[in-house]
Amino acid sequence: MTLRRPIARILLAAALAALPPAAGCARKVSLPSAPDPVPPAAERTLSGDVQPIFTARCAVPSCHAGPAPVLDEDLSSPALSYSTTVNVPSREVPSKMRVVPGDPAASYTLSKVRGDAGIVGGRMPLGGPYLSAEEVQAIEDWIRAGAKRN
Fold first, then answer.
1. Each residue of 16-65: pLDDT tens digit?
2. For residue range 57-107, what is the model confidence (pLDDT) as tens digits?
3. Buried b / exposed e across 112-128, counting CB within 10 Å, b at 16+?
4. DSSP the chain
């Protein structure tokens, strides 16, 4: 259709200008992302992230603390947690290490707190309440980052 009248051309131009741009021509707007509530694995530390979980949930009387911690796994301090878990064979499944630095899938302690198939005994903490997803993730991230003594 050919428009010969100047007013019709002006009206058509105004109407086209009022239309939204085509999808391919739309401006890209970047929205700020929500902050990640869980620090990356490289930032997880034994003393700052994992030990508070062990202290509150595992190193309780008649469990993994005191003069005779269950299965000789003492989780009452960062030093004891490290020395009784990292590269230490599980007493329940001796072919598996409690914590294998860099390898959460091979770490028996992580399997116990998740309640994975193949564990001996019950999920930890025994009888619950169990660790939250965030607490389990903190332990997993620390292991993945190398299970450092930090």
1. 455 454 444 344 444 444 444 455 555 899 999 999 999 999 999 889 99
2. 999 988 999 999 999 999 999 999 999 999 999 999 999 999 999 999 999
3. bbbeeeebeeebbbeee
4. ----SHHHHHHHHHHHHHSPPPGGGSPP-PPPPPPPSS--GGG--IIIIIHHHHHHHTSSTTSSSSSS-GGG---SSHHHHHHHHBT-B-SSSTTSBSB-TT-GGG-HHHHHHHT-TT-SSPPSSTTSPPPPHHHHHHHHHHHHTT----
